[in-house]
Structures are given as C-alpha cells and as structure tokens.
Amino acid sequence: MVGGGGLVQIPLLFNVFPGVAPATLFGTNKAVSIVGTAFAARRYLGKVDMDWRVLWRAALAAFVASFAGAAAVGLFPPQMLRPLVIVLLVAVLAYTLKKKDFGASSRGIDRKPSPVLALLLGAAIGFYDGFFGPGTGSFLIFLFIRCYAWDFLRASAAAKVVNVSTNLAALCWFVPVGAIMVKVAALMALANLAGAWVGAHLAMKNGALFVRR
Length: 213
Hints:
This protein is mainly alpha-helical. It has one domain (6-212). Helices cover 73% and strands 0% of the residues.
C-alpha cells in the first residue's frame, strides 16, 4: 500500500543470512520488491489519475540515480544509513500526524509542475533506493504530497511507479554480477505479491484517508 517491504525484508535477510555479502542481500531484496511494486503500480494505473508531467521526469532521474546507488553498495557500508532512516521516518510520521489535513485531498493536480523539482526528487530518492532502500515508498509519498499537494492515494500510486523504476535500475546492476539469491527471492516474492494485491485493493477501495492512516 505504501512501500515495497524493504523496512521488513532487509533486516530479515541480514538476520537470516548473516554470512552473505550485503550486495547479494540488497539485490535479493530488489528482486522481491519489484514484483509486488510492479503489480501494485499496474493496479493503480487504471484507477488513479496520474500527473505524468511529474512522473516521467521523476522516474527517469530515479532510474539513473538508482543504478549509481546500486553500484556504490560495495564502496560504502549501507548500514551506516540505518539510524538516519529511522530518524527521518519518525519525523515523517510526526509531521503527518500533526498536519491533520496532510494528504487528505489533492489541491495541486492543476498546478504547473516544476520539472527541475521532479528531477531532483527522483534523483535523490533513486540513489538512496539503489544504495539502501528501506522507507523509499514512505519518503516518496511524503515528498509528492509536500511538493505537489497530492492526496495520499495519488501520491502512493505515483510512488509505486517511481519505485518500479528504481528497483529495475538496481537490478540492472545486481543481476549481471550475480548478486541475487534466486530461490530465496522467488519464495519471498510470492508473499510480497500477495501483500501488494491486498494493499492496492484496500487503498483503491477506501481512498486517501485510509492510506493516510
């Protein structure tokens, strides 16, 4: 409904497979996440009004940056971002709870979108997702609402589209170097797909306020 499951999947993979290289665990997570995310994006596309003036720019920048982020996994320890991610997610939650009308309705769908902002947003989140990933969906939703005044449903749908782009780009790096546990990814992908179906169904059935909660 909100993200691709990285907040749960990555800690799980690191705890269950402590001896496996981080790049392989991140690659496995991407292989799992793209299945559910792509399915949810497809479900949203036919039902939610998308602003492609923003989306194609954000998705393109995110694709390029995510590939670069995935390539950088072996250069720096991604785990160093974990405390920062937790702080940012708590801040996003606090802001959302404080602003009672945040994301409740779309007020900016008719605005002329800033192409530069879309590119910057996509590049920043794309690199982060390729390099580390947990919380990407939540960050995208928050930024789409904050920057473009969309409601939670539209922002969630847009986040799925961009997230598919970042996952695909990261896999373009991880797959050729063999950094994926195929059997593990296949099993986890089935569960991720089921969760994506339920989440997308509930979001479209109940609307923006339900997603916000």
